[in-house]
Specification:
This protein has helices at residues 41-47, 50-59, 65-77, 83-92, 98-108, 121-146, 160-169, 175-188, 195-205, 210-221, 229-240, 246-255, 273-284, 291-315, 321-331, 339-359; strands at residues 25-28, 33-36, 39-40. With 385 residues, it is mainly α. The chain has a 3-stranded antiparallel beta sheet with strand order 1-2-3.
Length: 385
Amino acid sequence: MDINEGKPEIHAGLEGIYFTESSVCKVDGQQGRLYYRGYPIETLANSSNFTEVAYLLLYGKLPTGQELDAFDAQMREERSLPGEVIAEIGRTAARAHPMDTMRTAISMLSAYDAEAYNDSPDANMRKSIRLISKSASIAATIGRYRSGKLYVAPDASLSHAENFLYMLSGEKPDKVDARILDVMFTVHAEHSSNASTFGVLVAGSTLADLYSSVTAGMAVLKGPLHGGADEAALRMMREIGSADNTERYIDDALAGKKKIMGFGHRVYKTYDPRARIVRSYLESLLSSPYEEQRNLAQIALSAEKLMIDRLGKAKGIWPNIDFFAGPVYVSLGIPAEVFTPIFAAARMAGWCAHMLEYWKSNKLLRPLEYYSGQLDLDYVPVEKR
């Protein structure tokens, strides 16, 4: 038989395929717009904070003052980690990939949650709050142990971003740094059905519990085509060394068809709106008293201009959020190996919001695969092969 007879159209990577409806997030790749529950990301970054944004994503509306206070109190209460999880992070943080350690720690949390397998909507909401809160504590603890320092317990008097920096450094941060990190959490909190969110939904569509579902998302996020681009972009900037070397490096890389990390996006065909927000903080580093911060900012802005001139307008390859994130994190004293765990801690809000929504009308995700191999082959016993 002709195996290619009636061959369907193959959408590689499921590109262009709609698999569900959602009111969580809108990404307009053509116009460079991003909305959480209908609110522009620029408005949320400028006027809101991560805790309020997490509430918005989970509940589908902005909270009243009383609702926000109650939600914030829940978030603060859930920061603590089980001792066994802290010990596991301590055992593996120095030798394992940070995302391997974080994935394991997130998975372990289910063993210490009495509601782990309670699949009621109320229980899943409570678990979502725990996951959002504890994932930030896990990410900070990984960074703490990787630097060879002792665990710092969370401080309930601090905001979400303040507490992260405190658990990472052991020192209470200033308000400016905490505000910058809060914005970084906000702009990473959600981005529609990206690879990791789809991974969460695939797992959850089998009616796996919420911990299992987000652990699947953690595994997907580890891949360098999804998470980790900000770390790679920072590595490139440090390889460039100084702004004076940027043009030669970029031209040599393009001539050798080498990928410039932090440019181009599967969805955005224009400037990533999140990148514009982060870039505004990068510009302030040009006057930093610290040479490394000034140097990284100069390199990043020089590379941006060169890439836009060479590829942006002509081929639609523009900066994405990953390109500017690294230098901003460095300015906050955050080591590169913690960048992707921060991404995961922020995106936990979006993952949980999507999973809660999808479960309301759950359908097992089971796409078709077109078989292109041979059929009806004769089996030959091993002694005759």
